[in-house]
Amino acid sequence: MSQAKKIKIFDTTLRDGEQSPGASMNIEEKLRIAHLLEKMNVDVIEAGFPIASEGDFEAVRRVAKAIKGPQIAGLSRANNMDIDRAWEALKYAGERGRIHTFIATSDIHMKYKLKMSEEQVIETAVKAVKRAAGYTPNVEFSAEDAVRTRLPFLAKVVEAVIDAGARTVNIPDTVGYTIPSEYFNIIKYLKDNVPNIEKTVLSVHCHNDLGLAVANSLAAIQAGAEQVECTINGIGERAGNCSLEEVVMTLRTRQDILPFQTNVVTEHIYAASKLLSTITGIVVQPNKAIVGANAFAHEAGIHQHGVLMEKSTYEIMTPESIGLNQNKLVLGKHSGRHAFIQRLEQLGYELSKEDIEKAFVRFKTLADQKKEIFDEDIDAIVADEIIRI
Ligand code: KIV
Ligand code: ZN
Asked: First CA to last CA across the chain, in angstroms?
């Protein structure tokens, strides 16, 4: 059997995800997410945009100091000030620190936003990559709005930044405009036409404006992309980014047709989804693939019957594979600590002994007033009592 090719997972929940309206997180919250991403074994955590604010700088610095496994990226525009500031925060991660610098390459962005010519954009990109490479060899370059860029020009930019030292080159669909066949062709074109393309990791970064971010990312992988940028629950600017859990579980579930694998420990997916929505207050729609409340629920009698006889009749993956244990005990005023702790774990919470104790006291008080305690009640207790203090 041929070896499956490794696809790197670059999680940008803490940067692009945080750009989602209402998703801003404080430093402690970002650290909690970063620790869970570390456990999930993602390859890269983009922790923020250090020049954007003191808070973002501090969050990137703290994540760079605290996280040991994954690489830590910080975003910077293509100018010296941004790059220097990014490295100031990232240097604590040593060689795992990645400077991620970007400039737009589409006509529309060059004309209206940058007011720069093609030559100026290439020169600025090359200078930025060289500046970043002066700090670390771990440099990523993104051609913002790559999908709406004329392909021969995009190829020229990619060639120039590789020569300047970019170890990873990202081809974003910044506005979520492409469709799978088109994106496949863009990635294939770059693979086939850019000299020295093998010296870099080709990355993809899709937004979900047309609901195609995951499909586009998968098409790009099939065309030769080696890194996927994504977020937990697919949060991000406007309609969001490619959802980490969807792309990772598709690769895991369709090994028969997609000979790729990731390093992600998928059993932490449910916990990560839960923690993020508790922290941000952004609820996951019930029918959301993989992590929605209904993703493993069977309502129709015929489906229930089938699943009782043999799970694979209507389940293409197991709830356990994302860390969801479905054998639930009913919680009420007679329930003890053991059942309560088990439910916390099933919901993805990993709390200290002290926090469990606080939550348990609240649980008992509530159980005296209510017949049954639902998952939503526990989420509310944890959010109220622990996460937000
Ligand atoms: O969507 C985008 O183009 C980005 C880049 C900064 C990578 O987020
Ligand atoms: Zn983006």
From this structure: 52
- The ipTM of this complex is 0.99
Q: Which residues pair with 242 in a beta bridge?
A: none
Q: Is the CB of 142 under 6 A from ligand 1?
A: yes
C-alpha 189 – ligand 1 centre gap (Å): 21
Which ligand lies nearest the alpha carbon of 172? 1
Q: Is 205 in the pocket of ligand 1 (CB under 6 A)?
A: yes
Identity at 12, one-letter amino acid code: T
pLDDT tens by residue, 143-201 = 999 999 999 999 999 999 999 999 999 999 999 999 999 999 999 999 999 999 999 99
Q: Which helix (H) or strand (E) holds 346?
A: helix 337-346
Residue of 10, 75, 141 with the most ligand 1 atoms within 8 Å of its CB, for mutation: 75
Q: Is 102's C-beta closer than 6 angstroms to any atom of ligand 1?
A: yes
For 4: left if phi > 0, alpha if psi spans -120 to 50, otherwise beta; the answer is: beta
Q: Give Cβ neighbours of residue 265 (< 8 Å, ≥ 6 apart).
A: 39, 40, 41
- Please report where in the chains the tokens 């969001």 appear, as a residue: 240
| Residue 183 CA to ligand 2 centre (angstroms) | 16
* This prediction's pTM: 0.88
Q: CB within 8 A of 148, min separation 6: which ones?
A: 106, 107, 108, 175, 177
Give tens-digit pLDDT for 213-223.
999 999 999 99
Q: Which mutation among 49, 142, 154, 170 tests ligand 1's pocket best, with the greatest number of atoms within 8 A of CB?
A: 142
Query: What's at 27, amino acid-wise?
Result: I
